[in-house]
Amino acid sequence: MEEDLDLLQEATEEAEAAEDSRALYEVKMKFLGRTGKVTALLKSMKDIAAEARPAFGKKVNALREAIEEKFAAIEERLKGRELEKKLAGEKIDVTMPGKRTKKGALHPVTRVKDQLIDLFSGMGFEVFEGPEIETEYYNFTALNTPADHPARDMQDTFYLEAGSGQKESLLLRTQTSAGQIRVMEKKKPPIKILSPGRVFRSDDDATHSPMFHQMEGLVVDKGITLCDLQGMLDEFAKKMFSETSKTRLRPSYFPFTEPSVEVDVSCASCGGKGCSLCKGTGWIEVLGAGMVNRRVLENCGVDPDVYSGFAFGMGIERIAMLKYGINNIKLLTENDVRFLEQFED
Ligand code: DAH
Fold this sequence. Notes:
With 345 residues, the protein is an alpha+beta fold. The protein is built from twelve helices and ten strands. The chain folds into two domains: 2-89; 108-343, Bira Bifunctional Protein, Domain 2 (BirA Bifunctional Protein, domain 2, 2-Layer Sandwich), CATH 3.30.930.
């Protein structure tokens, strides 16, 4: 029994030989576990003469503590070594060349659309999106463009055959202006909406595409004048093009506005001096606008003697082409990655 009290040496040697904390655990169990050697000593107390017991107990306890201490020290050393090994395995060589991840880019049309929404929501406009398949009524008739009106020719589009029980033929909308009617039918003034979306026409050349995007705006309230429109447009031009941009209104004609204007923005490329982009005029035509025709207000149940309003509509592709110097609208739908990559942030 006495020589068993020398277990410290044996336990230490075995623990020192353990290669990792797993092996050390085995050694620990061998000495301190339920069936371990030290535990057996403690259990053997009952076989010892009562007067020798306290001294023996003291010794065994001291032995256990000494072994535990040794094990703890060895364990700490092993753990430290293992951690070092793990870290060494995870070491990164910062001088290695990195792997470049391709970042996507927003399409220039999406980008300009988002910029416009940002800009106009800052002025209090809310977004309303109308349907792409419209009735003739919303796309033309309610906008003061009856069936025989010559303005319909300028917006020739794609008609869908009328289904059974359907009174009116449907068409792919030619302008987001249809949204003006849908909003005014539902909402009483004050109205301040922005209506972005896809529109369709049978048009096809370097600056026209059968499908393109427009951004419509409509403001209706008491006492709205053309000055409000011009003030808002100045703000729009400065934010969208350049701090020094100016706007100019030219008389024009749209069936749904009276008076109607064509809005020019001073050429950002030459600062208004005249260049090839503005064809020497210093101005670039950017959008159509005007005071909402009283017939349109009446069609929507809004009293034109109480309320007035202005509306505007612009081509998003056109703005993108001006802003980014794109000379062919087809580049925007070809999905050539070499072109699109240039719009990465
Ligand atoms: N809808 C017109 C077009 O597609 C653009 C337009 C002009 C919209 C004048 C308007 C407006 O709201 O007031 O050519």
